[in-house]
Specification:
0% strand, 12 helices, extended, mainly alpha
């Protein structure tokens, strides 16, 4: 008897968990909608393991993420929509279709031709799905900064973009002025203020993109830096015999500057 493959073992486990009579009560109750939040959570846990370079954890988190795919495949199979093999064939077909420079060995392509061909084929695929805008298949559930970057990149792919940094930076300053204009009104229109803040974020994402960085990654790094420094401020304040609530803003600011100085010295 042939040894069962790891993926078949996983598929068999999933089938047992969803078995109507003897399966797991929790797993049997799940739907596409109830599983979706777990998929997002598992995705972020994969990214966190990569950031920490914890490859043992990454292996486990990738397993959790793969299980999400298997779970969706099983539920779809139960509804006679598609199965796991269909998912594998779908992505395989797409990869071969989008990489003729690899699988069509009779034709040679340089990097610019590869990029142009990739965008052309994606456009053809959108047309087949009656998606005629370059923005049609950008998921609305993406994190806002990530979605803004993708929207701007798609627009740039058809030439709707500034070609120099100057206008991009000018737009950021313009949006700051508009935010402050709304914030200084005697009676603040909160919906208008929120709109202008959104425009400022969007312009800042565009600046980040033009400088060759993804705003989502940059903000994540800023979050980590702030959290690291704030924890050290808490320690310094505690060492002075006070709690954060007891310390004045000036004392906390002094601790903050001390932390920055120490970090700069360490980096040197």
């Amino acid at each position: 008897m042939d040894q069962i493959t790891p993926i078949q073992r996983l598929l068999n486990i999933m089938n047992r968990l969803r078995d109507p009579e003897n399966g797991c009560p929790w797993d049997k109750q799940q739907t596409f909608e109830t599983i979706a939040p777990y998929t997002l959570e598992e995705t972020y846990e994969v990214l966190d393991a990569i950031r920490r370079s914890d490859f043992g954890d990454l292996r486990d988190e990738l397993g959790d993420l793969l299980f999400q795919v298997v779970f969706y495949a099983r539920m779809a199979d139960e509804q006679n929509r598609f199965n796991f093999d269909d998912i594998c064939n779908s992505i395989s077909d797409k990869l071969e279709r989008r990489h003729p420079h690899v699988f069509d060995t009779q034709t040679q392509h340089d990097s610019q031709e590869v990029i142009a061909g990739w965008e052309k084929r994606k456009g053809e695929e959108r047309a087949q799905k009656a998606q005629f805008s370059v923005l049609d298949d950008i998921p609305e559930v993406l994190p806002a900064l990530m979605r803004a970057h993708k929207i701007q990149k798609r627009c740039a792919s058809v030439g709707f973009d500034w070609t120099t940094l100057g206008p991009v930076l000018d737009k950021v300053y313009e949006e700051i002025d508009e935010v402050m204009h709304e914030a200084k009104q005697v009676v603040i229109d909160q919906s208008k203020l929120e709109e202008e803040l959104g425009d400022l974020f969007f312009a800042t994402v565009n600046l980040s993109r033009h400088l060759g960085h993804k705003a989502e990654s940059a903000l994540q790094a800023a979050n980590r830096k702030f959290e690291r420094r704030f924890r050290q401020v808490e320690q310094l304040v505690a060492q002075s015999g006070k709690s954060m609530e007891q310390a004045s803003l000036d004392e906390m600011e002094a601790a903050w500057q001390q932390v920055k100085i120490l970090e700069n010295q360490t980096e040197k």
